[in-house]
Amino acid sequence: MEKEKSSPWKSILRGLAFGLVVITFAYGFEVTNINLGELQSQRRRESLTRVLRTLARPDILEYEQVTVVVNAPVYMPCPADGSVPDILEPDRSQPYLIVTPACVESGGAVLVEGFGFTPFVSGPLRFVPGSDPTNVVTLGRENLETDASGHFSVEMTLPANRDSDDVQFIRATARENVGSPYFSRSAHETWDKIVETVFMALLATAGGTILAFPISFMAARNLMKPVKSPLASIALSAIGWPLGIWFGLQLVQWLAGVSAPYINNLPVLVASVVGVPLVMVVALRWALPQVELQPAAAGLRFARLLVVFAVVLLLIFGLFELAGLMSILGARIAAGLGSWGFLGTLLFQGGDILRLIIPLLGSLAAGGAVASFLGRIGQRMAENLSTAVARAINLLLAAMAGATLFVLGGALLEWFYQWGRPELTVYWPAAIGGGLGLLAATLASPKAVLPIGMVIYYVTRTILNALRSVEALVMAIVFVISVGIGPFAGVLALGLHTIVSLGKLYSEQVESIMAGPLEAVQATGANRLQTIVYAVIPQIIPPFISYTMYRWDINVRMSTIIGFVGGGGIGFLLLQNINLLNYRAAATQMFAIAVVVAMMDYVSSVLRERYV
Amino acid sequence: MLQINHLSKTYEGGVQALTDVTFEVPRGQFLAVIGLSGSGKSTLLRCINRLIEPTSGQILWKGEDITAASPEEMRRIRRRIGMVFQHFNLVHRSRVITNVLAGRLGYVNPAWSLVNRFPRADMEKAMIQMERVGIADKANQRADALSGGQQQRVGIARALMQDPEIILADEPVASLDPVLAHSIMKHLEDINKNDGVTVLCSLHFLDLVHRYADRVVALNEGRVVFEGLPQEIDDAKFKDIYGREAERVG
Question: What is the ipTM metric for this complex?
Answer without folding.
Answer: 0.93
